[in-house]
Amino acid sequence: MTHPTTEIAQIMRKLRNRHVQTERDQELQAALHSLFEVGEDGMMTAEPVRFTAGQETNGITLIEGAGGGKTTAIFKVLEDFAPLAENPATGASRRVYVKVEAPATLRSVGATFLRQLGIDHVSDRTKVYDIWNMVRTRLQIMGISLVWIDEAQDLFRSTTAAETDTVFRMLKGLMQGENPVVLILSGTERLGEMTGIDPQVDRRFLKIRPTDLAFGSDNEMVMMLVESYAKLAGLRVNIEADVINRLIYGARYRFGRVIVNLVEAIEVALLEGSEALTVDHFASAWARREGCEITHNVFWQEDFTSIDIGLDAWRQMPSETPGKKTRGRKKAA
What domains does the chain contain, in order, with CATH numbers? Predict the structure, then answer.
């Protein structure tokens, strides 16, 4: 059955915009609600809860390997948190999002913050300290209650011990003072390693660490995902049970990458005019994404777990702590 190109595009948009709620989303929702005050009417407000005798706020760290889907999950949870949607005084959102771009410095991150807050140019002669004072002032003026820093591990990518201490002071500064904000940091395992260095920073954060997918225990859930996505696309599912293990392995055990491969396999099937989703569609989509040869395709090779897909890199090498050398690798689960 041949589908018009426009129809395929509409189906793909629907699939890509679909969000599957997981335990991680539920943990995020619970953590977020615990960090904002409830009004006298019993409704959530945009006022952060103050801790330590009312002197500071707390935050959330979401630590997950690349491809897990953490960024999408946080966007969805924040979109559904009504108190942050709009500040009646400004007509703008009460939250601000900044993605750290490597190589990052406190100056470059501060300048990115200011652009998000309406200041497009910062003089090269402006001191870093003054930039961050401007950030805090703009947050207060705009009534921002929540700041989300994505890929936050890159704040520490090339820092010395002294520079790391400065980053910690900046983070603590956002969560203290007259108008502190709730801070969300999301990133890879290195983020957990670095924030754990400073006990004063570490204690301020609720920590969420989603587990990797696993053969067996997650197969039924993944199969249900395959069937539900295929149904939305008007396809039957015609795959053997072991395809689910191959899908999990090819996704480096990451939930987000499972979804990516699934959606792209459906696209291949639709473009071919197929009526059923098969292992060949998964293989073609994975090959296109990975740029691999047939002999290294996890969906076509019998002993697929023997194929080196760089799991050590995806599960994150332990990073060097400023002033200290680290040897060895994190053991794969």
Answer: 23-208 (3.40.50.300), 213-312 (1.10.8)
Strands 205-208 and 146-150, by their bridges, are: unpaired
Task: For residue 333, count CB atoms less than 10 angstroms from its CB and return exposed for 0-12, middle for 13-18, buried for 19 or more.
Answer: exposed
b/e code 143-173 from CB counts within 10 Å (16+ = b): bbbbbbbbbbbbbbeebeeeebeebbebbbe
- 296 vs 284: CA distance, rounded Å: 12
Model pTM score: 0.84
CA distances from 53 to 50, 57, 98 (A): 7, 10, 29
Q: Residue 293: exposed, middle, or buried by beta-carbon count in 10 A (0-12, 13-18, 19+)? A: exposed
Under DSSP, is residue 22 helix (H, G, I), strand (E, B) or coil?
coil
Q: How far, in Å, CA of 103 to CA of 112, rounded?
A: 13
Q: 287 — phi, psi (to 5°)?
A: -65, -40
Q: What is the mean pLDDT of the chain?
A: 88
- Ranking 28-37, 68-77, 174-183, 320-329 by mean pLDDT, the lowest is 320-329
Contact 56, 180 (CB under 8 A): yes
Strands 44-48 and 36-38: antiparallel
Q: Residue 229: which residues within 8 A CB-CB, separation 6 or more? A: 15, 18, 262, 263, 266
On the CB side of 332, how many CA atoms lie within 13 Å of its CA?
Answer: 13
Give CA–CA dist 272/115, Å, rounded. 45
Structure tokens at 34: 């615990």
**For residue range 37-58, what is the model confidence (pLDDT) as tens digits?**
999 999 999 999 999 888 899 9
In whole angstroms, what is the distance from residue 79 CA to residue 10 CA?
23
Summarize pLDDT for 93-131 with one digit per residue, the tens: 999 999 998 888 889 999 999 999 989 888 888 998 899
